[in-house]
């Protein structure tokens, strides 16, 4: 799947207007999941690191996602954030991954979804530049020759 421009500008006015940004719908879910997979691919191709993602169930228009499904979606974003090892100074934030089910339990709102997509957008933007600054190191060659070091082992 190709990168799809994330929506990071949700505001309270969207909730009042009840427009498409006011709700997390199937298209948003698919975009977030697809962009997470794209960032995972960038990490592999640019940094050579493997980030294992949780397999998500396909979203359905007729059902609401469970708290566990939301936690898995956000956990995948957290895994690529941690796997990329980029500094928080670029704007990356740690995301809440322990949403609870049930009435009265706090649920993600537009600010949380903005943070999910903003993290993915920042990772997608900064990973190519970060890979250019990666320093590859070999085995250090300091001190005595190898054969001399072995005689002191017990």
Detailed description of the structure:
The chain is mostly helical. It has one domain. Helices cover 47% and strands 0% of the residues. The protein contains 5 helices and no strands. The protein has helices at 12-17, 26-47, 67-84, 110-132, 146-149. Helix 3 (67-84) runs parallel beside helix 4 (110-132). It starts with 11 loop residues before the first helix and ends in a 5-residue tail after the last helix. The model has no long low-confidence stretch (mean pLDDT 88).
Task: List strands and helices in order, with pairings.
Blueprint: H1 12-17, H2 26-47, H3 67-84, H4 110-132, H5 146-149
Helix pairs in contact: 2-3, 2-4, 3-4
Briefly say what this structure is.
It is built from five helices and no strands. It is mainly alpha-helical and 154 residues long.
Main sheet overview: none
Instruction: Name the quaternary structure.
Output: single chain
Kindly provide the radius of gyration, computed on alpha-carbon positions and rounded to a whole number of angstroms: 21 Å
In what range is the share of β-strand residues?
Answer: under 5%
Mean of pLDDT: 88
Features:
154 residues; mainly alpha; 5 helices; 47% helix; elongated
């Amino acid at each position: 799947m190709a990168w799809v421009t994330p929506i990071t500008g949700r505001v309270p006015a969207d909730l009042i207007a009840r427009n498409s940004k006011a709700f997390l719908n199937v298209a948003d879910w698919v975009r977030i999941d697809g962009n997470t997979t794209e960032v995972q691919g960038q990490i592999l191709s640019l940094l050579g690191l493997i980030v294992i993602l949780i397999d998500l169930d396909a979203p359905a228009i007729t059902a609401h996602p469970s708290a566990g499904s939301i936690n898995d979606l956000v956990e995948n974003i957290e895994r690529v954030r941690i796997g990329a090892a980029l500094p928080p100074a670029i704007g990356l934030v740690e995301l809440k991954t322990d949403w609870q089910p049930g009435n009265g339990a706090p649920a993600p709102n537009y600010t949380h979804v903005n943070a999910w997509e903003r993290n993915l957008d920042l990772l997608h933007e900064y990973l190519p530049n970060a890979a250019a600054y990666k320093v590859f190191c070999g085995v250090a060659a300091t001190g005595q020759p190898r054969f001399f070091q072995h005689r002191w082992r017990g």
